[in-house]
């Protein structure tokens, strides 16, 4: 906690009032990971995802990944890495880092991947062309994505990624793993991801993961996916 207090004091320009020693000041200032605000209201994704699910998912589940990540990396070199840099070398760290760094990154990415149904826009331009080239059509892509999501046993994620050779692929990872981690077999740049944990859908859909995936397509933020693809 002393390091966090020091980091906070550095960030807020209060260093002159903090009685830090020279040795403490040599440490790079690293703020703790924090829960990002949702880019829309908790009720905004209805009817695809209900308000209570969104509240619990963001305030309880995502917050817990953030808290547990900060606890797992406190006092280690990992506390000085960006989340992406940590994922790229996550094999070096205990499972608590892998699970919670993944959980924090995946949920931050997931919230940005969704949009209220009234704001939905179908994919366009180069991304649409790339999906059609790779999968035949948007419908065929969605069918393959759903099939991969339904096949994932237990908890995990299904992804659309851009591989290092530039082509698109659908992958799935267990638990809170993701395609940025050095531990996964199919690596790439995530463009879209869907949370397959029961906590993401159980209140409204119970065991019907297929119905949840069907609803997911009504709230995908395709302009955001296009922006990721264009990078
Ligand atoms: Mn989740």
Structural summary, described in words:
There is one protein chain. It is built from ten helices and three strands; from the N terminus they run αααααααβββααα. The protein has 231 residues and is mainly alpha-helical. The protein is 47% helix and 9% strand. Among the domains are: 1-31, no CATH class; 117-230, Iron/manganese superoxide dismutase, C-terminal domain (minor pseudopilin epsh fold), CATH 3.55.40.20. Strands 2-1-3 form a three-stranded antiparallel beta sheet, with helices on both faces. The chain is globular. The protein has helices at residues 2-11, 22-26, 51-73, 83-88, 95-112, 125-135, 138-151, 202-205, 209-216, 222-230; strands spanning 156-162, 168-174, 189-195. Mean pLDDT is 90; it is low at 1-29. Helix 3 packs antiparallel against helix 5 and helix 6 crosses helix 7 (138-151). Bound molecules: manganese (III) ion.
Structural class: mainly alpha
Attached small molecules: manganese (III) ion
Radius of gyration: 19 Å
* CATH fold description of the domain at 117-230: minor pseudopilin epsh fold
- Helix count, DSSP H or I runs of 4 or more residues: 10
CATH homologous superfamily of the domain at 117-230, by name? Iron/manganese superoxide dismutase, C-terminal domain
The helix/strand series, from N terminus to C terminus, equals HHHHHHHEEEHHH
Give the averaged pLDDT, no decimals: 90
Q: Looking at the structure, what is the overall shape?
A: globular
Measured distance between first and last alpha carbons:
37 Å
């Amino acid at each position: 906690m002393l390091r966090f207090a020091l980091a906070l004091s550095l960030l807020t320009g209060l260093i002159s009032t903090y009685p830090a020693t020279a040795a403490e000041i040599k440490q790079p200032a690293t703020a703790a990971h924090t829960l990002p605000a949702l880019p829309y209201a908790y009720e905004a994704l209805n009817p695809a995802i209900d308000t209570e699910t969104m509240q619990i998912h963001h305030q309880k589940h995502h917050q817990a990944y953030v808290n547990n990540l900060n606890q797992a990396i406190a006092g280690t070199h990992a506390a000085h890495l960006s989340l992406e840099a940590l994922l790229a070398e996550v094999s070096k760290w205990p499972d608590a880092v892998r699970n919670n760094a993944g959980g924090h990154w995946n949920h931050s990415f997931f919230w940005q991947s969704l949009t209220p149904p009234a704001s939905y826009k179908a994919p366009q331009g180069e991304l649409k062309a790339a999906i059609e080239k790779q999968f035949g059509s948007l419908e065929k892509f969605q069918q393959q994505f759903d099939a991969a999501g339904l096949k994932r046993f237990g908890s995990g994620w299904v992804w659309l990624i851009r591989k290092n050779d530039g082509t698109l692929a659908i992958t799935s990872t267990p638990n809170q793993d993701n395609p940025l981690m050095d531990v996964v077999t199919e690596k790439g740049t995530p463009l879209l991801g869907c949370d397959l944990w029961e906590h993401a859908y159980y209140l409204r859909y119970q065991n019907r993961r297929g119905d949840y995936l069907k609803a997911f397509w009504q709230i995908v933020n395709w302009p955001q996916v296009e922006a990721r693809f264009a990078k």
